[in-house]
Amino acid sequence: xxxxxxxxxxxxxELVGKLEEAPTVYxxxxxxxxxxQANNLRGQFRAxxxxxxxxxxxxxxxxxxxxxxxxxxxxxxxxxxxIAFTQEPAAPARVIKKFVKESKTENPSLxxxxxxxxxxxxxxxxxxxxxxSTDELLGDIVSLLMxxxxxxxxxIQAPGSNLAGAVKVLAEREA
Length: 175
What we know:
The chain has helices at about 5-20, 35-45, 55-65, 90-105, 125-130, 135-175; strands at about 25-30, 50-55, 80-85, 110-115, 120. It has about 180 residues and is α+β, with helices and mostly antiparallel strands. The chain has two domains: about 5-130, Alpha-Beta Plaits (2-Layer Sandwich), CATH 3.30.70.1730; about 135-175. Strands 2-3-1-4-5 form a five-stranded antiparallel beta sheet. A hairpin with a 2-residue loop joins β4 and β5 (about 120). It starts with a helix and ends with a helix. The model has no long low-confidence stretch (mean pLDDT about 90).
């Protein structure tokens, strides 16, 4: 059933909102998936905190034109397209890699992605999957900051324990 003009306008506005909200957007080719595979894939995306939906290329192009900054991705808007919106740059790539490996299919495949303004093309799936999540990066930063503090605390405590040990040895000699 064809969409009415009002439905198309509402769909474009919804896509504009999602594009403005999400710093990471993946365009994928989902053709060839069975209904069961598509449902399984959606569930995996949902579990990873990724919103995944099939969209009409013309409506997505209109939304991308309104938001701006998606010019390099417009060339990928052909054939069956599904879009993934997320806050975590690596989450969709990890889901896609896992799904393709488990289901032994070629799709979904990456058409292109934009991560915090950086454009990634269809051959960048492995690079995107290897990106660290925000939590992992924060953990690395905390570890880097804690390392020097631990060294300082050890250095401050070491002379005190050395001095206490020396006093104990001297006390034992005199006794």
